[in-house]
Structures are given as C-alpha cells and as structure tokens.
UniProtKB/TrEMBL annotation:
<feature type="transmembrane region" description="Helical">
    <location>
        <begin position="24"/>
        <end position="48"/>
    </location>
</feature>
<keyword id="KW-0812">Transmembrane</keyword>
<protein>
    <recommendedName>
        <fullName>Capsule biosynthesis protein</fullName>
    </recommendedName>
</protein>
<dbReference type="InterPro" id="IPR045936">
    <property type="entry name" value="DUF6356"/>
</dbReference>
<dbReference type="Pfam" id="PF19883">
    <property type="entry name" value="DUF6356"/>
</dbReference>
<keyword id="KW-1133">Transmembrane helix</keyword>
<keyword id="KW-0472">Membrane</keyword>
C-alpha cells in the first residue's frame, strides 16, 4: 500500500519521492501565484496584464523539458 501511494508514480517519471514532491510543490505554488495574478487582473484590468499567462507558459516549457529528459533517461537505460 505504501509503495503504491508514495513510490509507484514518481518512478514512472524516473524521480524519487522527494524529487517528485519538490516538482509538485514548484508547479502548485507557481500556479497559485498565476491564479492570484489573474484574479487581480480581473478586478483591475490594468494590473498584471501578462503575469498569469507568462507564468503558465514558463511552466508548460519547464514541464515539457522534464518529460523530454525523463524519456531520454529511460531510453539510455
């Protein structure tokens, strides 16, 4: 049960539990900040005009790079 809950998924992306936790916290906190920027923009359209979309685009690029590296590591094994 422990293995299934905490270890199986991180291994599918070639990470340890703590590496995966760090990545998830990074994505989650970045998305929270982007969401807050979007809310501020919704209230005052002149503020945070590109903050939310810029952060989401950076996350998308970062996630694509992580997936590419993980795939390369699996191929080289």
């Amino acid at each position: 049960m422990f293995k299934r809950l905490f270890l199986d998924h991180p291994r599918t992306v070639n990470e340890t539990y703590f590496e995966h936790q760090r990545a998830a916290f990074f994505y989650g906190s970045t998305l929270l900040v982007a969401g807050l920027a979007c809310i501020v923009h919704g209230l005052v359209p002149a503020l945070c005009t590109t903050s939310g979309s810029r952060r989401v685009n950076k996350l998308s690029h970062h996630m694509g790079e992580r997936k590419r590296r993980a795939a390369e590591e699996l191929v080289s094994i």
